[in-house]
Specification:
The structure is a homodimer.
Chain A: H1 20-33, H2 46-53, H3 57-69, E1 73-75, E2 81-83, H4 100-106, H5 122-127, H6 156-169, H7 184-198, E3 207-210, H8 213-224, E4 230-235, H9 239-247, E5 251-258, E6 261-262, H10 264-270, E7 276-279, H11 293-306, E8 309-313, E9 338-343, E10 355-358, H12 361-374, H13 380-391, H14 394-420, E11 435-439, H15 446-455, E12 461-462, E13 475-479, H16 485-504
Parallel strand pairs in A: 4-5, 4-7, 7-8, 8-9
Antiparallel strand pairs in A: 1-2, 3-10, 5-6, 9-10, 11-13, 12-13
Helix pairs in contact in A: 1-3, 2-3, 6-13, 7-13, 8-9, 14-16
Pfam families (chains A, B): Aminotran_1_2, GntR
Keywords (chains A, B): Aminotransferase, DNA-binding, Pyridoxal phosphate, Transcription, Transcription regulation, Transferase
Family (chains A, B): In the C-terminal section; belongs to the class-I pyridoxal-phosphate-dependent aminotransferase family.
Chain lengths: 506, 506
């Protein structure tokens, strides 16, 4: 049998800092995969290899053992080592492990060498469209970033203290798999919170903790909709919800929104047999009105009659500047057709990634099973920290402080609008939330307006990006919660300047 | 217009501890929804209501304002308040908010009153079957809980210290939305980890951080499979993967496993055009063999030729008791057809909920977009803590310590098997992992064996629960990693006793 000569075994030089064993393993493996050491070839004696490369014989023996365990070599102690004879003959373009970073870069170009591509599925093409900033958000925030709470005002040191205390007090049992439905003490304080602030009759058993409202919509759509089933979307409406419903195969019925929220009668005309309706009843995204009581009752009556599911996404209506927050649609849901979603991403901070659903009793079990299968549960110590933060009253205090602060900023935006935006942007009254729509003159191109604003350092979102079936009114969604009143005024001036130039070509 | 008399407005007594305003609001709202105060009815004067119920007039005005904001009342200051005339006439079985907890319980029975039920979709029926313990796991662990690391040996105080330090050092920018793909410093140390321990040529750009391997399988199946497309499952194989693939609409091809892992030639015969193959190449779940090198190359060749995707779930092969961990299948994936999944749930602790995928370059963007749309990202401070824990070398040290400890426990299980299980359970050699299969006499009912063992306080998982298409050999999966050697021996004795009784009716 052929013994691998020294020429067969030209090894690449060992990179600085790489362990001898890892280097030798990578070189021998590459030589075998590339066919320089063919099937059945006999390897040099371990003693010779060791002497030639200035390594200990133990190192060489370790490498041979590893290659034998992985199937590259066969042989018996004392009788020499051979390249496994059943291997294919050197088709593999294998680089040694020492080449890893270079290979990683090279693989960018490897696209062309694939014989058959891995193509996205039809539904995959719908799923691979994110509504979100996948690269994250810059900090601090800028005028007028929509749906953004003020992170400068978050009681950061307090949160860190609670988290650190929780870490020290953490019971070892908190390392084990937790309940898929969520940490029970957290579910209890959330149930109490929505009972008091939203009038929702519920207990901890109806609450499920997840990472985001998107997960609730995604799971609910898959659980209770088959591909091709119709779902009502508010039009204009929240893009994140629409994309995830479409990815789940829903046929979207675009139901118009007016000053009383989603037009339920029109929904019944367009898609009476829809299986699901997605609504932002507390503060319609993006236009702002609360769903009227009459329509709330009509929506529930339709859902009840048809056996349809309503998802109420209550993303920021906690921040209501006059009076208490409105009761949730869910508070009227006696027959159990509404899944209510709340999130701490806007109440506290986005990187927290804890949201929750309040489910009708008979939907809890399938929802939790599906969540357990696909997501398992939210990290337990994160849930425990949030529980302590709520139970100690910090969330309530923070929300009250922010409600006042955001109210002042909403007023500052109104002021700035009066001062700078006449003839450019019309700002309706702001009663709640973190952002507000402002309307451009009829016929203006709001996507263009958002682009020229972005070039001047102003973040907005055009209303056209919320369009579902019908054209949305031309306008921009403006966040006012995450920046100070001076920045609001300065941003409003800048925005006026670029809109003036765009609209009147000055 | 009719003025609501005092008789019309019989209010329930205020529960102890409930705020006056919340009580009065709930009572009036219920009276309207139940029709006791009909559409157009005039409410008592605020002054009279205040006097009658011993509350301030300000409280009554606040309640009227809230009810007006929510659409229950209309009217103008000084001219009285009326129930909104467009409301339906008292069809709603509304309880006041003060009844919330009672209502929550009552709703369990509301199922029968629904006019039309919300039925699970066809795919929902597949999605609502969890493979996991939705109620969490008891602590401490018991003999022989499968796939369970030892939480007693986890350096708990050290983790808490790192987490507390991270909390104190946390930058305020870490409150904002992070990168959907994951915290970059964490992705960098993970890339380094899999380069060194698994021979995978990759960089941080190829790594995506998620909450669990289940999420990787779920997203990959939806992105690259359409409903009805075939997917290879190892048979017997991991139930969690099979259920989530089925829920995504995959047609499962049950490919047999032998001593060399999944039978690739048989897979090619059964479903040559499959779009996806799920493999546990490092340590086949549940039978244990590593996928042979010849089959690894054949699998990659098939995937390359057909444009299929391979998911390599490397759940616990890090714990290899002799020699280094084997290189991953992914280390041979030059053409970019393998998604490698790793998890920290078994390496560190299950409640952590951080896993990762190493993706071929051209699959990164659609995967991250889909993850961003459905899950957004993993909590940022959790990622930062894990990053610090890895970067400071604690993970490496912990894995080395646990490898030794689990090796001793595997040996203790072998010892116990020799002592107690002759004629009852055959235990093949254990080379890696947290659990091992043991085989019952041919023809034995392993599901029954698992049940009788459970009655005696012994946790196992029958091999039949891993069956995909063919009957699995009769046997039990036994975890040895999470309990001490004394408990292993005692558990083995108990298991022998119940199996003896079951098999030989003694």
């Amino acid at each position: 049998m052929r013994r691998a000569t020294e020429i067969d075994l030209a090894l690449n030089e060992r990179p600085d800092g790489m362990a001898l064993q890892r280097w030798l393993y990578g070189e021998l493996r590459a030589a075998i995969l590339q066919g320089r050491l063919g099937p059945g070839a006999r390897l040099p004696a371990t003693r010779d290899l060791a002497a030639r490369h200035g390594v200990s014989r133990g190192t060489v023996l370790g490498v041979f053992a590893q290659l034998a365990a992985e199937g590259y070599l066969s042989g018996a102690v004392g009788r020499g080592s051979f390249v496994a004879s059943e291997l294919p003959d050197g088709r593999f373009d294998a680089a040694p492990a020492s080449e890893a970073p270079r290979l990683a870069r090279r693989k960018a170009g490897a696209r062309d060498t694939a014989k058959a591509e891995i193509g996205l599925s039809a539904r995959g093409r719908l799923l691979a469209r994110s509504a979100f900033a996948v690269d994250g958000r810059s900090f601090p925030s800028r005028a007028f970033r929509p749906s953004q709470p003020d992170l400068q005002s978050f009681p950061f040191a307090l949160w860190a203290r609670v988290a650190a205390r929780r870490s020290r007090l953490l019971n070892r049992s908190m390392l084990a798999d937790g309940e898929a439905q969520g940490y029970r003490p957290l579910r209890e304080v959330i149930a109490e919170h929505v009972r008091v602030t939203r009038g929702i009759a519920c207990a901890a058993d109806h609450v499920a903790i997840v990472g985001s409202a998107q997960q609730v919509i995604d799971l609910a759509a898959r659980l209770w909709l088959d591909p091709g089933d119709a779902a009502w979307m508010e039009d204009p409406g929240y893009q994140g919800a629409r994309l995830v419903l479409e990815a789940a195969g829903a046929r979207i019925a675009a139901v118009p929104v007016d000053a009383h929220g989603i037009d339920v009668a029109e929904g019944q005309r367009l898609a009476p047999a829809a299986r699901l309706a997605y609504v932002t009843a507390g503060r319609q995204a993006p236009l702002g009105p609360a769903l009227s009581l009459e329509r709330r009752l009509a929506l529930l009556d339709w859902a009840h009659t048809r056996g349809a599911l309503v998802i109420e996404d209550d993303y920021d209506s906690e921040y209501r500047f006059e009076g208490r927050p409105l009761a949730a649609l869910k508070s009227l849901d006696n027959a159990g057709h509404v899944i209510y979603c709340g999130t701490f991403s806007k109440l506290l901070f986005p990187a927290l990634r804890i949201a929750y659903a309040v489910l009708p009793e008979r939907l809890v079990e399938p929802f939790v099973a599906a969540w357990s299968l696909t997501g398992r549960h939210v990290p337990l110590d994160q849930q425990a920290t949030l529980h302590a933060f709520i139970a100690e009253g910090h969330v309530g205090r923070h929300v009250r402080r922010m409600r006042e602060l955001y109210g002042e900023r909403a007023e500052a935006l109104r002021e700035a609008a009066r001062r700078h935006w006449t003839g450019l942007l019309a700002l309706p009254p702001i009663v709640a939330g973190l952002d507000a729509p402002a309307f451009l003159p009829v016929g203006a191109d709001d996507a263009l307006a958002a682009r020229v604003a972005a070039q001047a350092g102003i973040e907005t979102r055009p209303l056209s990006s919320y369009a579902v079936g019908h054209a949305a009114p031309a306008g921009l969604v403006l966040g006012f919660a995450s920046i100070g009143v001076d920045d609001i005024d300065a941003g409003a001036r800048t925005l006026a300047r670029v809109l003036q130039a765009m609209l009147y070509k000055t």
